[in-house]
Amino acid sequence: MDVTQVRSDLLAEQHDLDEIVAALGPDEWSTPTSSPRWNVADQIAHLTFFDYSAARAISDPSAFGRDVEQLAAAAAEGDAAVEQVTLGEFRSLRPDELLERWREGRRLLAEASLTLDNDTRIGWYGPSMGSKSFLTARLMETWAHGQDIVDALEMTRPPTDRLRHVAQLGFITRAWSYINRGMVAPDEPVRVELTAPSGAVWAFGPEDASESVTGPAEDFCLVVVQRRHLDDTSLVVSPLARDWLLHAQAFAGRATDGPPAGSRT
Question: What local confidence, expressed as pLDDT, does residue 254 receive?
Answer without folding.
Answer: 87
